[in-house]
Specification:
The chain has 494 residues and is α/β, with parallel strands linked by helices. It is 64% helix and 8% strand. It is built from 22 helices and 6 strands. The protein has a 4-stranded mixed sheet. Helix 2 packs antiparallel against helix 3, helix 7 packs antiparallel against helix 15 and helix 10 runs parallel beside helix 12.
Length: 494
């Protein structure tokens, strides 16, 4: 019952703010959806219908209220080759399969993998997206009439100054309405939304992709579907984490995987392309007062209404108004404190953050940047843990026995140091290795322990292992060979 009340509150707990924010997002979605369609090499209606469908469906099925999902550049770029080689119908099929893969990921609870993404990677991801959002506006600012710069500056002034008058209406919405009225009223010669491409005039209809249902077809679309599913989930889960922080509310990452999958699967059957969460639009939504599922639903519903019913008016919106909003988003998205923190944070954290930014910006591929960041985080963590390790020893009074005490984590990164800490040439009758303050983690550490024991036995010493904890004892019993027949002979032969 509590979950039902919580779900209802996610819909109707902020009606006015969600509806207004959804309207602002819908207006900003139109040129982006058209642009992403052009990137993928398909008709603008493919991206527009996708943005409508994905936004509406994730409002019901997603795990992060207030997050905006629609057609995105991250997924569009992955479809270019497929469309060029096989056509639109294969793109629709790939969208359906990608959705099914995402549903499977959610059912397998892969959303929990987000816990392995460090704060440095998330900060780098946010900063890189802010840079990409700003760079995406440059085509609208280069080689344009001077009036465009005036309009953009006026739009930014409205966005940042209007809240001092009132916060009851989102300032980005006022920016769009004011600049559109000025452009139409004075007949200004500036670039408008209609210049981006033709808006559809009919509602989307259900259709099955027109292609042969064969194993060969599946093998054609599966690589693209897998890439889209992975990139889409990665961007969606990262964006969900950011919205969590902005709103101080939790999200269900596994439910978000399932919600994205349902949305993409259904979208493929109405002629739409795959999509995922959009950090830029999500930031617009949150900054415009959107918090609940209703804001996401309104964004999709208003989008369809505006392109089908109010298309002639929407075409007149100057691109300068939308550019101003996206510049505001870029400025608000960038973590400016991360620059100041470069001198205070550990060097490894700063390297991870900067590497993530660099990879995303230079490749325009979010997945590559985040994977590089996660890999570096893992390497630096392993290196740090391997340094928290030492082996001390004491010799008996008669000089015939030595006791080694191992402290720390013994795994692949510290295995060499573990082995090097022992003196195998010392003439001893007995060696005791106390690992009660250590933990043996993997096959590399077990192999190192085998080597140490066998080398001492080769020199004629008796070896005793003390203090193995339960987990260490389990892996040693399963993988170790030092007590198995012929182990010493194999070492001698090696």
């Amino acid at each position: 019952m509590n979950s039902l009340f919580a779900y209802r509150d996610q819909w109707f707990g902020n009606i006015r703010g969600d509806v207004l924010a959804g309207l602002v997002v819908a207006l900003a979605l139109i040129p982006e959806a058209i642009a992403f369609s052009i990137i993928a090499g398909v008709d603008p209606k493919v991206g527009l219908f996708a943005s409508f469908s994905i936004a509406v469906l994730t409002a019901f099925t997603g795990g992060r209220p207030g997050m905006i999902s629609a057609a995105t550049a991250a997924t569009a770029v992955l479809m270019i080759t497929l469309v060029k080689d096989h056509g639109l119908q294969y793109l629709l099929a790939a969208t359906v399969v990608a959705g099914l893969l995402q549903i499977a990921a959610g059912c397998l609870r892969l959303g929990y993998l987000m816990r392995f993404v460090s704060r440095s990677v998330i900060t780098g991801f946010v900063n890189a997206l802010a840079i990409l959002i700003f760079l995406a506006q440059l085509p609208e600012l280069i080689g344009v009439p001077w009036l465009t710069y005036v309009m953009v500056a006026a739009g930014l002034a409205i966005i940042y100054l209007f809240p001092f008058l009132t916060k009851s209406i989102p300032s980005p919405l006022i920016c769009i309405l004011a600049l559109t009225a000025v452009a139409i009223g004075f007949g200004l010669d500036v670039r408008i939304v209609g210049d981006m491409g033709e808006l559809p005039s009919t509602l989307p209809v259900f259709l099955l992709p027109d292609l042969p249902l064969t194993f060969e077809t599946l093998m054609i679309v599966l690589p693209y579907s897998a890439a889209v599913a992975a990139v889409g989930l990665l961007e969606s889960l990262m964006t969900a984490t950011i919205v969590d922080d902005l709103t101080d509310t939790p999200s269900n990452k596994n439910q978000e995987c399932i919600g994205q999958g349902i949305a993409n699967t259904a979208t493929g059957f109405i002629g739409g392309m795959a999509g995922c969460a959009m950090i830029g639009q999500s930031m617009i939504n949150v900054k415009s007062g959107g918090r609940g599922r209703l804001s996401t639903f309104c964004a999709g519903a208003f989008l369809l209404f505006m392109i089908v019913v109010l298309g002639d008016w929407v075409k007149q919106i100057p691109m300068a108004a939308l550019v101003a909003i996206m510049i505001m988003v870029a400025i608000g998205t960038f973590s400016w404190s991360s620059i100041k923190n470069l001198k205070d944070h550990p060097r490894s954290s700063s390297v991870v953050m900067l590497a993530t930014v660099a990879c995303v910006v230079f490749t325009h591929n979010l997945a590559i940047g985040v994977l590089v960041g996660v890999l570096l985080s893992g390497i630096f963590f392993a290196w740090k843990i391997s340094q928290i390790f030492r082996v001390t020893s004491t010799l008996s009074e008669d000089g015939t026995a030595r006791r080694y005490v191992v402290e720390g984590q013994v795994f692949f990164a510290s295995a060499d140091a573990f082995t090097a800490a022992f003196d195998f040439k010392e003439a001893l009758e007995k060696v005791t290795i106390d690992v009660s303050r250590a933990h043996i983690w993997d096959i590399s550490s077990v192999a190192a322990l085998d080597m140490i024991i066998l080398k001492f036995r080769r020199e004629g010493a008796e070896v005793e292992i003390l203090g193995l904890n339960k987990a260490s004892e389990t892996i040693v019993d399963r993988l170790a060979i030092h007590d198995k027949p012929g182990a010493l002979e194999r070492l001698m032969g090696h």
